[in-house]
Predict the structure.
Amino acid sequence: MAYRLEKFASTLRQALGEILARESLNPGFKRVSVLGVRLSRDLKRATVFVALPPGDAPALLEQLLRSRGFIKKQLERRMILRAMPEIEFVEDAFGAAADEGLRLPPREKP
């Protein structure tokens, strides 16, 4: 099961990068790098770790959060799934997702 999650996360990361770089009309999204994706076990939530340019980080993160509907719709066109996971963008300022080879620590249960 872990291999399937890693494979899906990798595919999702690649598709998100292409959507932000090529299909989005927002010029700021072209400067956003998708570092990693962490999926919940049930594939209903995806946490996307992004690297943002230093000066525009808060504004770009807010724009990404507002554009989730568009991004999700583009992902649905690319990937065939029963249900597309809900996307949450998180700034990864230190590149932890890239340094760990996308093996992020599991989330603690609230």
About this structure: The mean pLDDT is 84.
